[in-house]
Amino acid sequence: MANHRDQEFTDYVSAHRGRMVRIARLLTSGDAHWAEDLVQTALTRLYLKWGAISPATGATWYADKILMNVFLDEKRRFWRHRETLTDDVSEPRPSAAAGPEDRLTVLAALERLPKRQRAAVVLRYFCDLDVAAAAELMGSSSGTVKSQTARGLDKLRDLIVEPLDSVEHVR
């Protein structure tokens, strides 16, 4: 029985880990190492509950919920400090939609948002979740998600003063 459960979990991780890392990279404003730590912690917690979760009926939602909780808990810890690395590890290849300068600008702006605003913006616009799904993952009301998203977008507009190359301005 444990072998079947372990194989199911391994298959799930193989299929969904990349998506989790992309979400975590956005939450950590591009910090690949911190994102990997968050995903590893989330997957460890998911594995501990794997017997009670049906992969077909909510494993992805549960994994996203754990990842969001791990991120929000990490941001609350006072002892967490970021280390500056002297050598960079190879990064995933970016999409061709936006230039590297645009990505860096957006990541830098995301980093300056408060954690709940950042989480709301990432869930709504990068993960393409509706308000109700984002609220459930954040453990907040729909109204809170709407207000945090609006405040986050307003602050992003203030922080990104130069137009991004890949964004067309429509008035």
TrEMBL record:
User: Has keyword Endoplasmic reticulum?
Assistant: no
GO terms in the biological process aspect are: DNA-templated transcription initiation
Supply the InterPro entries for this chain: RNA_pol_sigma-70-like, RNA_pol_sigma-70_dom, RNA_pol_sigma-E_actinobac, RNA_pol_sigma70_r2, RNA_pol_sigma70_r4_t2, RNA_pol_sigma_r2, RNA_pol_sigma_r3/r4-like, WH-like_DNA-bd_sf
Alphabetical UniProt keywords: DNA-binding, Sigma factor, Transcription, Transcription regulation
Pfam families from the entry?
Sigma70_r2 (PF04542), Sigma70_r4_2 (PF08281)
Which GO terms label this protein's molecular function in UniProt?
A: DNA binding; sigma factor activity
Give the domain of life: Bacteria
Q: Which CDD domains match?
A: Sigma70_r4
- Which positions fall inside the RNA polymerase sigma-70 region domain? 13-80
The RNA polymerase sigma factor 70 region 4 type domain covers 105-156
The keyword Magnesium appears for this protein: no
Report the sequence similarity comment from the record. Answer: Belongs to the sigma-70 factor family. ECF subfamily.
Any idea what this protein is called? RNA polymerase sigma-70 factor (Sigma-E family)
Source organism of the structure: Kribbella steppae
